[in-house]
Amino acid sequence: MSAQDLSSAAAPAPAEEEADYNFAYLDENTKRMIRRALLKAVAIPGYQTPFASREMPMPYGWGTGGVQVTSACLTESDSLKVIDQGADDTTNAVSIRKFFERTARVATTTRTEEATIIQTRHRIPETPLTENQILVYQVPIPEPLRFLEPRETETRKMHALEEYGLMHVKLYEDIARHGHIATAYAYPVQVGRRYVMDPSPIPKFDNPKLSNCPALQLFGAGREQRIYAVPPYTEAISLDFEDHPFDPGGVDQPCALCGATGVYLDEVITDDQGTRMYVCSDTDHCEKTRADAEAAQ
Amino acid sequence: MIGAPLFKLSGLTKLYGARVGCRHASLEVRAGEVLAVVGESGSGKSTLLSCASGQMLPTSGGVLHGATSPDGRTVWRDIYQDLSEPERRKLLRSEWAYVHQDARDGLRMSVSAGGNIGERMMAAGARRYGAIRREAEAWLARVEIPTDRLDDRPTAFSGGMRQRLQIARALATGPKLVFMDEPTGGLDVSVQARLLDLVRRLVAEYDLAVIIVTHDLAVARLLAHRMVVMKQGRIVESGLTDQILDDPLHPYSQLLVSSILQT
Amino acid sequence: MATTRSEPDRTDGRGPVQIDISGLKKSFHLFGQNVSIPVMEGGELCVHAGECVALIGESGAGKSTLMRMIYGNYRSNGGKIRVRCVAQGGPEKWIDVGLPHPHEIIEMRRATLGYVSQFLRVIPRVSTLDIVAEPAIAAGAAPEEAVARAKQLLSRLRVRETLWGLSPLTFSGGEQQRVNIARGFAHRFPIMLLDEPTASLDAVNRETVLQLIEEARDDGAAIIGIFHDSAARARICSREIDVSAFTAQAA
């Protein structure tokens, strides 16, 4: 019980039934280690900082990296939102939210503007973020160069020496094969005109939101033991060719439920005849738009 | 025509523990000149090539890159001592190039022919897709690969085509010095001849300096202006190719020359 | 003797000296049998612009060996082989072929010294026309000009036009020899070495080759030739040098 004794000084005493867990699950030493990595990541925007990723009570691929970063950032006054592909109500989002409700007893919310920490898988919320918010991404593969160069020793050197010709080979291949840059998600960006970064598998539609965002953006890759960051108001430029400029894409029609335009839409097949509708991927934004519309009537 | 010196080895020595890779090797190469390094397996040719081409730090001795200064003088810099790692890597992908014996080592097999040729251009900062593609197409034509294969991957190419593609990839950014490691090894005789002809034309057209490692004296005879013979890690004889092949002065060179099969 | 050697520009009423050889020595050491075979000692020769000198002597006397030493193909063991070389954009320059300076020899072969050997050694797959035009292009001629001259030479030597696009490696011996000669005469070298240029040629082609040699000689070239054909020798050579005089006595 000595670990608990140590942590009780730093964290509030947990409720009776969760007494076996430290605040937000990880012990304080681990959180401190992660925070050091986070500080380094913020100091070197886009650089993949190694950290001693822990075994978490969930499988790899379920957001272990993001959960560790969230755990290291959470305080008891935070309000946490968790989304998976823009939705608050999918299995992954629900279980991570429940995890922190039980281990940290923090307030949770589905409203983007109310959250102080948002852990996300594969999306950036439509509601513009603020300086008071932290966006934590779950990252499966942090290395953008791995597609063409499998050797980790070599990719590290390429980052160190800013040898990024290979990234354009990937884009070249896309255009040669499909006539346009077909990379639709995990579209690489150059952060602060220095490091090339994989923004995790968010749709390229979200890429413009990465750049000059007022919120702090943190990226955690649990299996690969890497943390990286885009600090507030930092430029993140999507790579492209002069004659094939970056195009965020997106569906050219409004959401079938709320009528919002300029948002990222999911395609939903509604019957066996292939009838389809397009609805907001960001469930909170969709609900809010509908509520606003009802209030206006 | 042979131009200014642009590469030198001086007293190059590489030891693998107590074993000698190569010892006190010195040579010089000039623009427009092909130098063959010959010798049997284990003679130190590959060690010499690895050290010379910037891939392996020698135990002692210099690997010198000659650059022409604005006032026309040649400035010599040791690629391991005087260049930082970024500078050295930049040199290796701009002014120098390397052609591997096995094209699979020199090509990205999962990338189209165009992407392979374009890589060095993009690394050098090319950002116009159309221009990169046109240049890649021109290079395919130069190495006698049909331009409609531009978007095919090298996995779909024959051995000879792969080797020609590797050469196009290496030459696309206009290097001045090209290292070649047994470029015709493992190819059919007719394919070999075509490759030799291609290399010969490219050397003349682009004024290339080439250091070619080969155990095939016929290749050296047809391609190289000069050659060095290596044995047990040392250069035992050097001179004009025809001098060494027609009038070898070192016992080992004589043995090597007398071992050629006549056709 | 020593003083005249140091002034190779003496003319003796002919053109200036182009090749000046003295005290030339050569032996072959065969390491396999560990024997040394001396082949030449005290070789002397001086050739002027505008003359054709024949090397004579029995088979094995060292005619081809001497020629190969002048070309820098065989390396001498002593003495001097001085050749007056054309220099790119500068004054002429004497180089000693016996010294180990490969780049000067390469440059000499490119611009000054042509050599027609008895064998055609070329990269497979290269067309006859390209092979013939190549020395002229290497020596600085415009490609169109070089190709025009190559075509003219091939026509004169009766190599059928249908063959020009093919590699000569598939040709008959006589055809290969004529391609070899065309290649040798493609550039107007100021010095030429001809090793049996008329061997294995029919009378008509022999006549053409002799004309080519005469034209080159009258054009001012210094020519050293080996001809077994004594009529040819009598017709085009002003002097004969008996190489047997330099043949080393086996120890």
Describe the structure.
The complex is a heterotrimer of chains A (297), B (263) and C (251). With 297 residues, chain A is an alpha/beta fold. Helices cover 30% and strands 17% of the residues of chain A. Chain A has eight helices and twelve strands. In chain A, the strands form three sheets. Chain A has a seven-stranded mixed beta sheet. Chain A is globular, with a radius of gyration of 20 Å. The termini of chain A are far apart. In chain B, strand 1 and strand 2 (19-30) form a beta hairpin. With 263 residues, chain B is of the alpha/beta class. By secondary structure, chain C is of the alpha/beta class. In chain C, 33% of the residues lie in helices and 25% in strands. Chain C has a five-stranded parallel beta sheet, with helices on both faces. In chain C, helix 4 crosses helix 5 (143-156) and helix 4 (128-138) packs parallel to helix 6 (173-185). The two termini of chain C are 28 Å apart. In chain C, 43% of the residues are buried. The chains are: A alpha/beta (297), B alpha/beta (263), C alpha/beta (251). Chains in contact: A-B, B-C. Chain B binds chain C through residues 1-2, 30, 33, 193-194, 196-197, 200, 204, 221-223, 225-226, 239-240, 242-243, 246-247, 249, 251, 254-255, 258, and chain C through 28-32, 68, 72-75, 100, 102-103, 105-107, 110, 121-126, 138, 140.
How are the SSEs placed, and which strands pair?
The complex is a heterotrimer of chains A (297), B (263) and C (251).
Chain A: H1 2-10, H2 28-43, E1 49-50, H3 64-73, E2 79-84, H4 91-103, E3 107-108, E4 117-121, E5 134-138, H5 152-160, H6 165-178, E6 189-191, E7 195-197, H7 207-210, E8 216-221, E9 226-230, E10 236-238, E11 265-269, E12 276-280, H8 283-296
Parallel strand pairs in A: 2-3, 2-4, 4-5, 5-8
Antiparallel strand pairs in A: 1-9, 6-7, 6-10, 8-9, 11-12
Helix pairs in contact in A: 2-3
Chain B: E1 5-16, E2 19-30, E3 34-38, H1 45-52, E4 60-68, E5 74-78, H2 85-93, E6 96-99, H3 103-106, H4 113-123, H5 129-142, H6 159-171, E7 177-181, H7 189-206, E8 209-213, H8 217-223, E9 226-231, E10 234-240, H9 241-246, H10 251-258
Parallel strand pairs in B: 3-8, 3-9, 6-7, 7-8
Antiparallel strand pairs in B: 1-2, 1-4, 4-5, 9-10
Helix pairs in contact in B: 4-5, 4-6, 5-6, 6-7
Chain C: H1 2-5, E1 17-30, E2 35-48, E3 52-56, H2 63-71, E4 78-85, E5 93-96, H3 102-111, E6 113-116, H4 128-138, H5 143-156, H6 173-185, E7 191-195, H7 203-218, E8 222-226, H8 230-236, E9 239-242
